Amino acid sequence: MSSAPGNREDGVLPDRGSEEVDDSGGDSASGRQELEMCLGNNEIKSRAVVKYSAAPPPTTYALLQEKTDLKLPPANWLRESPQLGPAGSTVLGSSSKSKPFSSFGMAYDFIDSIGDDVDVVSDSENIKKLLKIPYSKSHVSMAVHRVGRTLLLDELDIQELFMRSSQTGDWTWLKEFYQRLIDQKWQRKKKSKEHWYQKAILSKFLYYSINGDGAAEPVPDSDNPDEGCGAEEFGPSWPATFTSNPSDTEESTAHKEEGVPMDSKYALGQVASKEQNLTTLFNEGENSQGLRNDFVRNILWTFEDIHMLVGSNMPIFGGGRYPAVSLRLRDNNKPINILTGIDYWLDNLMCNVPELVMCFHVNGIVQKYEMIKTEDIPDLENSTFSTRVVKDIAQNILSFLKSNCTKEGHTYWLFKASGSDIVKLYDLTTLCEEAAEEKCQNPFTLPVAVLLYKVASNMMLKKSQNRKHYGTIRTLLLNCVKLLDQERHPQIIASAHYMLAELFQLDEPPEDGAGGESLRAGGSEDSYSDEEEEEDHEDLPEDSDENASFSTALDSQDDSKAVAIIKSVGELSVPEKYKSTHQIRPIYAFPVSQDKEERCRHVLSYVLKGLKAVDGSIKKESDLPAADPNTPIPLKYEDGSKAVEKGIALLLDRAGPFQEDRKHPTRSGMIPGSWQHRMKLQLFFKASKAYYVLSDAATNLLKYGRALRYIKLALQCHDAYCSVSSTLHSRVLLFHSQCLSLCGDIQLMLAQNASNRAAYLEEYSYQTKEDQEVLHSLHRESSCQDQSGLCDCPPAFNMASDLATDPEYQLFVSSKCYEAAYELLTSGVVKEHGPEQLAQVLKRLGNIRNEIGVFYMNQAAAMQTEKEVNKSVSIAEQEIWKKSFSCFEKGMKDFEAIEDSTNTSLLLCNIGRLMRICAQAHCATSADLSRGEFSPEEALYYNKAIDYYLRAMRSLATRGNHPAVWDSVNWELSTTYFTLATLLQDYAPLSRKAQEQIEREVTEAMLKSLKYCDLQTESARQPLYQYRAATIHHRLASMYHSCFRNQVGDEHLRKQHRSLAELHYSKAVRLFLSLKDAPCELLRTLLERVAFAEFTMAGQNSSGAKLKTLTGALDIMTDTRHAFLLIHKELLEDRTETDGPELTGPLDSGADGHTSSGLNTTEVMKLIGVFEPSFSFLLLQLVKLMTAMKRKPSNKDEELLKTYKNVYSKILRAEKTAPLLNRVELFLDLLQQLTPKTGSVDLGASL
């Protein structure tokens, strides 16, 4: 459709501005447009999204009048024009070639799309050239690089490359290979004058179109376009070989930083480098090495199922029925051929331009305009082509490249000679290695490595989804490191190793389920290895249909170098001819291990490589004090608490939140603020965390020697961190407090497990080569070294992490570690960040102070046992008491600060025990070394102990808060009352107090002890409580018995004492009977009760009263049968175990009078010595009284009298020297005869 001359049609293209367009669903006026092309029955889907545009909103193009002479330049010719962008100048050829790294510039700017979302990144001219291969006889030469699923395509101008090679000597191996490949001597072809003529009038046409004045005054034709345009021939656009070094990087940082896009800032972790200023890693030559994204617009183009990120400089104007049109200039005498039609069609598709305006001219004179819809271009006369075929070509080429460009980091060369139908793919990286030339000779090496690094870095920054990509990230980083020379690019290598270390999460367990599976599978289907010995093509059948013609079974010698070939470009038009059967194998599976030590070793391996890269970029080793990395660093050890306190103080000084700003280089020569400085801080911190996790894991395995070694290394890493850091971040201080806490835990465990000291020392002394190398790097920055490289002052961490031999010293070090951690957590910077950690440290601090208090308390008890009986309390003892008490008090304050009532009560309980030890130490002795009276000092300390126990119970409030602790405190309180009462009763201070007062105090203490005897709750202590309660009743009964015997005058008081004695005797007997394991105590209580009855009878006058009392006493005596049954049972068990069942002789007892069953035979013999006369006396008195009775006895009385006489006769005739077992059996037989028939029990039966 043509338009009349002079008629202007205004068209408006949506304003794309210069911002990235949102990629989310829905069309927007800011650049998202979708266009579907239909050609007959073949539907081609094309969709384009403008991601970035530097061009202003398109303005209406100017329609030139007929007969306008385009050979005359307009007044504005070659002036900078935002509407044309670089198109106006490039048409003259000054920079017409695609820059060799144009795809990398786009990839850097849109790093989110690289690796997964996009299939191809390239200049639109390269895309068009590939899709025109079957139609064109022109040569094709492109460099291909793979990053994940994405292919980067760049023009590889082989002729220009060899022009440079002839001057510098680089790439000679490729030049020789190329000459053999095309079988002719290489020569450069010059462009024709017609070529430059057409470019010149196109440039003038575009400038006329934006002039706004159709009759613009032409300027005198003073320039020779041929001469000006020929500059391209002598102005090579190929970049210089990359020779970036650290010094260049440092110098060029300032003026290049402006060109770094915001989304390329490196924000991983705390490395505050500006994406390491990666663009500054390249020398900025005249054309910026081609690494900048200089395209006017970047478009995300989806062509069928192929996603491409393309760069385009095509000028777009407004006008026509649509908001955007493209302008084309055609010679009216030359028809549009198919190549030109495909060119126009693809340009419009990529840029979402719905129409093109064609201006026809004859010899530079404008003739007419014609408007053509984009979807009509394939049907133009003389240039008809099938859009479906173009789609098939695109899919086949992509499949071919993806199937064969499999190695990340390798540079592939796609080559088709002029006039040839064969397309070949070479691996230049492999060819370069075979040529034995340095890898830096490949100019793509550094951009590829940087791109791999940037893609990995971008994936790392995506916190929500990066775990499933860890395998891919690891592959990218390892390939990046392989491409680079550590001496030339230490910054990228160090950063890559740091990120590799970051992949291993040390502060969380590995995920199970889907997450874990994705890691084991490598996390990405496009993770590749370049370490395979087999070529990838060996996986493909040579003659399969789907493999088409790109086979590696090549005939010619030169073709044997190719990775794959397409034998005929015509096959690219066959649908799915090159559909890939190549299965992409996940070579780099991310190593997932449940073993913490293995994960930490991976981290330390990468940290060490990063440190080596940083160290290598600073100074040579000879410039520093030498230290052999294979020799363990000797560590000085100072004993004593003063040395510890000095070391901990130094440690706190180094770990303080603020230090002086560092303005001078560090010991190794690092400049504060440099990338080396920042990276080393992160590597030191990461190493410290790894060693911390190793130490924690070893602690859980009870390998305390290994744990101490690892925590020492963690603290050494922190010390090195402090040596180079001017300000410590709160997270660093928090982590350091964790290290100190763990160190305190380990020292405590070592003190408590002194028996395994030899094994711990062996674990502690072992050191791996990797640990030695890390130490070597740490000591490059350590400030505590002399000229020999050895420590000349004890570093702070030595005090905290040395393996000492003294448990007291270890406990002291442990407490100092906790104190240092506490001081860190209460400092201003950290105070708000670690409330939970502070509570844990306070709990540990309270615990270690309790442990030290118990240690001193045990020492005091040992000293008391060893000292002479009559020796008074020494000053040393008193000092130990004070130390123990001080530790307990401090520990109580720590637990009270976190409101831990349970542990507070335990410490109060321990202080109570300390007071009891103090009381025992004040035990008075008489002149004959026997125990003296109960002293006031003893009473004082026992009462203090009682106070602390009561405070402990008040701290717990109720048993429900912590039953075990409550029962423990309850028992100790009852024991203390009982001990106090027993000592008062047995060693009554009669010289100071009246008998009555002592009795009252004893009674009060006994009853209080009885109050805390928990007889109802079923527990392990219940039998102990029952025994104690029985003992208390027995002692009270004995005391009242004694009072009753000694009381004279006050009859009321005597009766009271008598009734109390009877009451307590009966309770004691009942409790002893329920125990079943205290026969001696039961027998003694019953005998005392019989004696009490005998004493009562002595004061009676009437025969009836005496008979009644004696009968009651005999009943009590009969109850002793229960005690003798228990004694008999134990004696039988002991004889069976000791001598066998056949033995009938006397039973022997041990030296201490105890049998193997625990029966005290000596005590039994003593009690029998009391039992026999008392039993005989009772029977004799009963016989006398019953015989002397005046009334006639009843048959029952006569029978009883007969029994009494019989029993009395037998007991008198009993042999005193008979074996104990026989005597006990005799007593049981006699007591059985006295027992009423209804209550008879067979011999040997248990209760």
UniProtKB/TrEMBL annotation:
Residues 841-1237 form the EDRF1 TPR repeats region domain. Residues 1-34, 217-260, 509-556, 1136-1155 are annotated as: Disordered. Residues 7-19 have a biased composition (Basic and acidic residues). GO terms for biological process: positive regulation of DNA-templated transcription. Residues 527-546 have a biased composition (Acidic residues). It comes from the Eukaryota. Signal peptide: none annotated. Residues 43-559 form the EDRF1 N-terminal domain. PANTHER family: ERYTHROID DIFFERENTIATION-RELATED FACTOR 1. This is Erythroid differentiation-related factor 1.
